[in-house]
Amino acid sequence: AFGAKCPKLKMFLHVSTAYVAGEQEGIIPEKPILMGETLRVGTHLDIESELILVKDTMLELKASCSTEKDGRKTMKELGLKRARHFGWPNTYVFTKAMGEMIMGNLPIDFPVVIIRPSIITSTLKEPLPGWMEGIKTIDSVVIGYAKQTLPFFLVDLDLIMDVIPGDMVVNAMMVAMAAHSEDQQVQVIYHVTSSMRNPAPYSILWKSLFQYFNDNPPCTGRNGERVRLKKMRFFSTVIWFKLYMAVKYMLPLE
């Protein structure tokens, strides 16, 4: 609505996420998500109905005098339930998909470009290699290992980890704006990802982390001594993960 009021506006760029595709496998085409389209066969998404459901649930919580903590818990559970009902794994990608649907239905006469990056990580070159702001997504795993507070992780090291440096995403956004600023009314979608051209398995992340922090120890003890870097343990299945948790932690606690 704000953009439509700008008299010299040439195009509109919207940043979504590659994971609006849900848990599909194979090559994912750069095609728009149509209004009401879902990932689960036999379902239809009505955004207005979802908004009404949210509003009604919040009114019920207010009427029942629920605490703020209980209210947040209820709304998170509702969001996850609705997302999975329509085939998306979590609320984040569910609402991103809704955003794309709305973008495709806007009554506007200028081009719309949707960028779908995968997991955005630290920069490759600009403003300097390895720069990042805040701790988001995969960064928490990196920091957890650096502080030696993450001794194990549930992941198959052979799986492809689709990450993309932040400056590459920004470059793609700027190029897309320049390329389509003179277009007539059109919607274009670009996947800004790495697994097709430069696939990196999770084992690459692990080896890189260990090598870097082994050469540049980030943590020191209370007396300033270096903390010995331990190798992380990985579990490729939930069964082995739960079994390890039970033997290592639950039984001793009991």
Automatic annotation (TrEMBL):
One of its GO terms (biological process) is suberin biosynthetic process. One of its GO terms (molecular function) is alcohol-forming very long-chain fatty acyl-CoA reductase activity. Residues 2-173 form the Thioester reductase (TE) domain. It catalyses: a long-chain fatty acyl-CoA + 2 NADPH + 2 H(+) = a long-chain primary fatty alcohol + 2 NADP(+) + CoA. It is an enzyme of class 1 (oxidoreductase). Keywords: Lipid biosynthesis, Lipid metabolism, NADP, Oxidoreductase. The keyword 4Fe-4S does not apply. Its EC number is 1.2.1.84. SUPFAM superfamilies: NAD(P)-binding Rossmann-fold domains (SSF51735). The keyword Membrane does not apply. Catalyzes the reduction of fatty acyl-CoA to fatty alcohols. Belongs to the fatty acyl-CoA reductase family. This is Fatty acyl-CoA reductase. It comes from Aegilops tauschii subsp. strangulata. The lineage of its organism: Eukaryota, Viridiplantae, Streptophyta, Embryophyta, Tracheophyta.
